[in-house]
Structure formats: C-alpha cells, structure tokens
Write a structure and sequence with these properties.
Blueprint (H helix, E strand, L loop, with lengths): L4 E5 L20 E2 L2 E2 H10 L4 E6 L3 H9 L5 E4 L7 H5 L9 E5 L2 E4 L2 H10 L5 E6 L9 E5 L2 E6 L7 E8 L1 H7 L6 H10 L3 E3 L6 E4 L3 H7 L1
Parallel strand pairs: 1-4, 1-6, 4-5, 8-12
Antiparallel strand pairs: 2-3, 6-11, 7-13, 8-11, 9-10
Length: 219
Amino acid sequence: MKIKNAVIMAAGRGMRMMPLTDIVPKAMIPYKGSTLIANGIDKIRKHIEHIYITVGYKGALLAQHVIEHNVTGIFNTEGKDNAWWLFNTLLKELDEPVFVLTCDNVIELNFDLLAHEYYELGEPACMVVPVTPVSGLDGDYIFGADNIINKLTRAEKSNIYCSGIQVLNPAKINRLVDRCDNFYKVWQQLITLQELYYSNTYPSEWYAVDTVEQLQRLK
C-alpha cells in the first residue's frame, strides 16, 4: 500500500545560518539550482500525492515559494516547536500514515519500501527512520530490539540514530499521548506504550544542514 500524505517541516527552533538566513529562511537556501525545500518537494512528489509544509521564520516568503511548487497546504507554526502541528491542525484527524521530513534533510529514500515496512510492522503510531551516525552531525541514538525502541538518548551512543524522517499516524498519536509541542516528548510517551518503532530501511543518502559549514560540505 502507498502512503498518500507527507509533511515537510520547514519551521522550528533550528539554527539560523547567518548571514544567509538574514535574507531567506533556511528552507530557501540555494541548492542545486533550486532551494533546499524545493529540492525535497520535487523528490517526493513522484511518490506522495499530498504535501503539506509548516512555515515559521519569514513564513510569508516561504509560503509564497512553496505555493509556486503546488503544495497541498501550509501551516503557520511560527513560534511553535516541531510537533505543534501534530496536535493543532486539521492533520490531527488523519487516521492513516504520513511521511514526516525536515526541510534541511537532503535524502535519497525508497518511499515504497518504507511504506511496505510500516504496514508489515503493524502500523505503529510512529516509525522513525534511522541512519548510521555521521561525524559532525548530532542526533538521538536509538536503542531497542525487534524494531521497538526502548530508549532515545544523546548521552550514550549506538550504531544508529534518528534521521528526522518518520512515518506516523496523527489520529492514533492524538488518541495515545498527551498533547505536547516537541517530538522528543511525543517519542518518550510512545516508548512507554511500545508504540515507537524504527525501520530496517535506511536512506541510501542522507545529510542534515544546520550550519553554513555543513552546507558547504554538502555542495
């Protein structure tokens, strides 16, 4: 079965990459003749029918940019943390899986294989997609067994950590956990319920861009 919906999170409390982000939001930083977020939209459009974007810093500018790329909807999450949209927009009623990505992840991903794995695992409330740790990039290290996560931490290291990519069911999460505005808090509640899983499928390419230096390395 295919997954029809995706959310690209272009708003949050991430680092601003001075001086570039004095002019445009990080999502609109130039990349491969386009922008970080437009590159992501173009990659997933072949696989996903509906694409939603969260906007915050310089939201009007970013909203205009993604409208030109024919996204399905835009949510203004300025001043909110990264999971706010999950509990406070119409998507909270969606009782089916949604891909969640961030605008600063540059990826190559087999969406069909991930969807298949999500259904094979019994459609958990949330399945995070891990990557092998990359030197210089921070992440929440994953500990667990049989695809069920029992701990996420930055204090200890394992051979995989969170990539920022997830498959989740918004309505199921709203039924299971208390409202909060941060995904780490969501994940901690789901760990207690044994509803936070990790996939065996990794991106074939993955890089996160938080600083100008990382952008230069990517290019």
